[in-house]
């Protein structure tokens, strides 16, 4: 399998469940999305449960006194920054990254302010994603 | 024909009190309402979802009472009533001492060795 | 014959439920499916050769291809020379390409 085998119309769907800063699964998910975009796939992300907080616009970085760093020196990316970077990567490579946050999960967590480029949706979006994708990978939470 | 989806649920009671249901069982209902043919396989400690007479009522913090506790057995029965299959892994129930007559009607057991053949029956298999 | 990609993220020494997933991989392979088991995150802690190395040898005999995430290995200081026979380092591209080819993917 090689990049040349990927077709720009081939779509992969990822279903994410974990909130930020709780588990390694979030970073692995970002690595997978990044790799898929770089290999020319279109990507759908259905953020369910705590994962709807990944693109929450009000995240802010912080200093790290243990490391002896102020906020600038620590340069700690919030997960929203990684999501924004992935959206920009997709745009640059002219492939699609469609990030949907499950609306009821957003409401109960109070994280409606998501970064631009993501959108609110419902399980009906997950079904559409699944039906239009070559494969769907659910990354479950525990 | 509607896409058939088998969702494997293995972690029980993860957020059920806060959500007042199991998020994956709920999702199976919601996807079915959108036209998918959703089915469930309970494994690991999630086999306990099929047990009759679960009672999570009475949660109260200060003056705030939970009036709609989760009713997981009810939610599984409702999925069966809508035409969904709800299966459970026989060995996982047995090792936990769950007897078949303790389960709600309509569940079907499957042995671990039968999973490859079971997976073939569905368009999608999602492991939660 | 279908193509299956089983992604194990958990350490088998932390959770004995991981052996269920290894056995599922073997079972799917015995049922004549093309099966890849990809170890990621703490699951790679099992990839270091040791007394348990037979687990992966057995998977190989069953026809399962076992890969370990090279980033997760490096993150945990596990050199390639220390891996069990039958475990091959790979990048997450190995997951992505299989998804793009329509593999049925299960994450544990």
Number of domains of chain C: 1
Largest sheet of chain C: 5 strands, parallel
- Give the SSE string of chain C: EHEHEHEHE
Report the helical percentage of chain B: 25-40%
- Fraction in beta strands of chain B: 15-25%
Determine the most extensive contact between two protein chains: A-C, 22 and 21 residues
Separate helix tally of chain C: 4
Number of individual domains of chain B: 1
Q: What is the CATH-assigned architecture of chain B?
A: 3-Layer(aba) Sandwich
Low-confidence stretches of chain C: none
What is the CATH superfamily classification of chain B? DsrEFH-like
Name of the level-1 CATH class of chain C:
Alpha Beta
Adjacency order of strands in the biggest sheet of chain C: 4-3-2-1-5
**Element-by-element helix/strand order of chain B:** EHHEEEHEHEHE
Helix count from the secondary structure assignment of chain B: 5
What characteristic shape of chain C results from the CA principal axes? globular
In short:
The complex is a heterotrimer of chains A (142), B (128) and C (108). Chain A has 142 residues and is an alpha/beta fold. Chain A has helices at 24-38, 71-74, 79-93, 103-109, 123-131, and strands at 11-16, 42-47, 97-102, 118-121, 135-139.
Set out the fold topology:
The complex is a heterotrimer of chains A (142), B (128) and C (108).
Chain A: E1 11-16, H1 24-38, E2 42-47, H2 71-74, H3 79-93, E3 97-102, H4 103-109, E4 118-121, H5 123-131, E5 135-139
Parallel strand pairs in A: 1-2, 1-5, 2-3, 3-4
Helix pairs in contact in A: 1-3
Chain B: E1 4-9, H1 16-19, H2 23-33, E2 37-42, E3 60-61, E4 64-65, H3 72-81, E5 86-89, H4 90-95, E6 108-110, H5 115-120, E7 124-127
Parallel strand pairs in B: 1-2, 1-7, 2-5, 5-6
Antiparallel strand pairs in B: 3-4
Helix pairs in contact in B: 2-3
Chain C: E1 3-8, H1 18-30, E2 34-39, H2 54-62, E3 64-69, H3 70-75, E4 87-90, H4 93-100, E5 104-107
Parallel strand pairs in C: 1-2, 1-5, 2-3, 3-4
């Amino acid at each position: 399998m090689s990049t040349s085998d990927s077709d720009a119309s081939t779509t992969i769907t990822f279903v994410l469940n974990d909130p930020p800063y709780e588990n390694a699964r979030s970073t692995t998910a970002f690595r997978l999305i990044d790799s898929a975009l770089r290999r020319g796939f279109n990507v759908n992300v259905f953020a369910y449960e705590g994962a709807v907080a990944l693109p929450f616009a009000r995240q802010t970085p912080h200093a790290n006194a243990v490391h002896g760093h102020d906020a600038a020196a620590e340069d700690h990316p919030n997960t929203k920054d990684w999501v924004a970077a992935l959206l920009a990567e997709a745009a640059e490579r002219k492939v699609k990254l469609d990030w949907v946050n499950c609306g009821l999960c957003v409401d109960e967590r109070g994280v409606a302010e998501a970064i631009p480029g993501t959108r609110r949706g419902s399980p009906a979006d997950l079904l559409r994603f699944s039906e239009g994708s070559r494969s769907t990978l659910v990354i479950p939470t525990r | 024909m509607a896409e058939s989806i088998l969702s494997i649920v293995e972690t029980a009671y993860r957020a059920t009190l806060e959500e007042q249901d199991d998020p994956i069982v709920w999702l199976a209902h919601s996807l079915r309402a959108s036209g998918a043919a959703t089915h469930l396989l309970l494994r690991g400690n999630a086999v306990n979802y099929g047990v009759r007479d679960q009672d999570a009522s009475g949660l109260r913090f200060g003056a705030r009472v939970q009036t709609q506790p989760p009713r997981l057995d009810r939610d599984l029965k409702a999925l069966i009533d809508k035409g969904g299959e709800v299966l459970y892994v026989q060995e996982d129930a047995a090792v936990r001492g769950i007897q078949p007559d303790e389960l709600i009607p309509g569940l079907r057991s499957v042995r671990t060795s039968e999973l490859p053949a079971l997976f073939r029956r569905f368009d999608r298999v999602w492991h939660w | 014959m279908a193509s299956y990609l089983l992604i194990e993220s958990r350490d088998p020494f932390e959770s004995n439920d991981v052996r269920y997933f290894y056995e599922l991989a073997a079972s799917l392979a015995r049922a004549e499916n093309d099966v890849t088991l990809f170890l990621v995150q703490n699951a790679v802690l099992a990839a270091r050769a040791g007394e348990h190395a037979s687990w992966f040898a057995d998977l190989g005999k069953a026809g399962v291809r076992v890969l370990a995430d090279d980033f997760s290995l490096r993150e945990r200081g596990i050199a390639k020379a220390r891996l069990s026979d039958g475990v091959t380092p790979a990048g997450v591209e190995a997951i992505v390409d299989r998804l793009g080819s329509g593999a049925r993917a299960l994450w544990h």
